[in-house]
Amino acid sequence: MSQSEIKTAPATAVNEDLRYLVVSLGKEQYGIPLLQVKEVIARTDTTPMPHVPSYFKGIMNLRGQVISVIDLRQKFGVTAKENSRQTAYVILDLSPLSFGIVVDAVDTVVALSREEISPTPDVESSARSNFLEGIARKDKKLILLLNIERSLSVEDIRSLKRSVEQKAS
């Protein structure tokens, strides 16, 4: 789905902080806070980096800026769909870090009211639920709302910084 094809939900009197970019990872839909999304680009080639976790796909040059790319599908242990025209990179801005994530598809932008968001259920030993902000119910579908900062481990952040520093030098 191209940027021009992304459907935007009608803006009602909803707080701007409750707008999410909905992406598909495997069979599940995840919401990323729209304020953290810098842009969506088509899948492109990356340069692999040594000594990083397997879900780090490498680095890429985005208009002169070196961006690290993480495959969220692999990090979350989600069975990825075959790469297709819909596979995209979502570039995130978590100042001071900017990085890309690989997603199976970009679906839509939604505006959510607080009533549409439920707390994440307590699940024993579920590492995935540690970085979920909640679960949204929208149009009879469930959307898992991500907290990207909590999804990154200390080692992830070090690898992101290290890969950019290595390429810059």
What does this structure look like?
By secondary structure, the chain is mainly β. The protein has one domain (3-168): OB fold (Dihydrolipoamide Acetyltransferase, E2P) (Beta Barrel), CATH 2.40.50. The chain is 14% helix and 42% strand. The strands form 2 sheets. The protein has a 7-stranded mixed β-sheet with strand order 1-9-2-3-12-11-10. A 5-stranded mixed β-sheet has the order 4-7-8-6-5. The model is unreliable at 1-16 and 124-128 (pLDDT under 50).
Arithmetic mean of pLDDT: 80
Named CATH architecture: Beta Barrel
CATH topology term = OB fold (Dihydrolipoamide Acetyltransferase, E2P)
CATH class term: Mainly Beta
End-to-end distance: 35 Å
Total domain modules: 1
User: What's the β-strand tally?
Assistant: 12
Order of helices and strands: EEEEEEHEEEEEEHH
Return residue spans where pLDDT drops below 50 for at least 5 consecutive residues.
1-16, 124-128
Radius of gyration, taken over Cα atoms and rounded to an integer in Å: 16 Å
Q: What would the principal axes of the Cα set say about the shape? A: globular
What does the largest sheet look like?
7 strands, mixed
Helical run tally: 3
Strand % is 35-45%
Classify the helix fraction into a percent range: 10-25%
CATH superfamily: CheA-289, Domain 4
Record the strand order, biggest sheet.
1-9-2-3-12-11-10
Structural class: mainly beta
